[in-house]
What we know:
The structure is a single chain. By secondary structure, the chain is an alpha/beta fold. It contains seven helices and four strands.
Amino acid sequence: MTRHGNRPLLFLDVDGPLLPFGDDPQRDLAGTASNSHLARLNPQIGPRLAALPCDLVWAITWEEEANIELAPRLGLPQLPIVNWPEPSAAHEREDQWFGLPWKTRSVVAWADGRPFAWVDDEITDADRDWVSTYHPAQAILHRVASPRGLTDQDFAVLDE
Length: 160
């Protein structure tokens, strides 16, 4: 998987989409005290993500921990990771003015003009507006409900 391939990118957030926040007693029983949050991962999601016609990219603050802790549990290879540089003072002021969440600029910069989809539980209309203005290619920003994580309905949207 190369960063400059022809396929669209799929930026993946973890907390919420892949690690749901909702109460599920079955998930709670599966984990241990040290990794109970990772017990919320559904290992069936990995093959479904890998089957999508896109290049997967972690869009999370976990950095390399995602490839160490999450990728093997999901049956995914090591994935590239979006860097989160410190924003300039001008960008911080502009982001505050427009209500733009902190990830958006970095995701668009990483895409570097390629089409992409982005699944996250914190996507807003401000993200959609900014991306449609500043990203030249097609982009799908799909908000996932954090209590339930990725579902069949979310995959139907991504499959389109």
